[in-house]
Design a protein that fits this description.
Length: about 260
């Protein structure tokens, strides 16, 4: 890990934990989705993000930055900028899902975890990305017309992409185990907020606020804590995987005693 390496190199007493950016979706006049009882996605995302921050600081000695820590509006490209300036080890964007019609609202519940790809993994994934990207369309046309170029550039950073996939699976597995929510799988889609990030990045749809039972459950602070703890568990597992890979790699570069170069 960069943070680890850096602090050991310069020998400071600074936090040796990972640097993590958490992005609570929406904010300000952008409410996001809402539940029948009036729970707003922007508030839910912020509540879970704050709990996740506290958990990561306590368990991993992490340096955690929220892209917003109040009810403020932040453009999608500003979120990416805030994140990259931290040079984070990973990025997590927190959102909640909803369905447009009454019959779909009754049926659809569960958790989805996304990582970036140029093509959506299905029709539903495409719709979720379209909804979450709506703010980008409002802010500038150029932003979305450059979308494909952004994605292609990003996908060229193959290792970051591969690590985003690992992060998504680790977090999703931990979430399903920890919350017992319905498993809607790890999916891929072209999310604007994941483009241009220079770190492994995922977007989590923590549940459907539009579902009668799940919407109510999501409003419960204890359940929000369970979600935060589960995400933190997944992040911990991911960081352990990366650390194991990196240490294997550095072993591989150590020359054999007496060996020629
Ligand atoms: Zn959202």
């Amino acid at each position: 890990m960069r943070a680890l390496l850096l602090s050991s190199l310069i020998g400071t007493a600074a936090s040796a934990g990972p640097v993590i950016v958490i992005d609570p979706g929406h904010g300000g006049n952008q409410d996001g989705a809402s539940s029948p009882a009036g729970l707003l996605e922007k508030n839910l995302a912020l509540a879970i993000s704050k709990k996740l921050k506290a958990k990561l600081e306590a368990d991993l000695d992490a340096k955690v930055k929220l892209t917003r820590d109040g009810d403020s509006r932040l453009h999608l490209d500003e979120r990416v900028g805030v994140a990259n300036r931290q040079r984070p080890d990973l990025f997590v964007s927190i959102h909640a899902n909803s369905m447009p019609t009454a019959s779909q609202r009754r049926i659809n519940e569960g958790i989805e975890t996304y990582f970036l790809s140029a093509a959506a993994s299905g029709e539903d994934a495409k719709k979720v990305a379209a909804r979450e990207n709506a703010e980008a369309r409002q802010q500038s046309k150029a932003a979305t017309s450059d979308t494909l170029a952004f994605i292609l550039a990003d996908l060229q950073k193959a290792e970051t992409h591969h690590d985003s996939s690992r992060l998504a699976y680790a977090v999703h597995e931990s979430l399903i185990e920890g919350t017992k929510a319905q498993d809607r799988g790890v999916q891929q889609a072209p999310f604007y907020v994941l483009m241009g990030l220079e770190a492994p990045a995922v977007l989590i749809e923590v549940g459907f606020v539009s579902h009668p039972r799940e919407g109510e459950r999501l409003g419960d602070a204890k359940y929000q804590q369970q979600i935060a703890d589960s995400i933190a568990g997944g992040i911990k597992a991911f960081l352990a995987q990366v650390e194991a890979r990196d240490s294997k790699r550095s072993e591989g570069t150590v020359p054999e005693p007496g060996g020629s170069k």
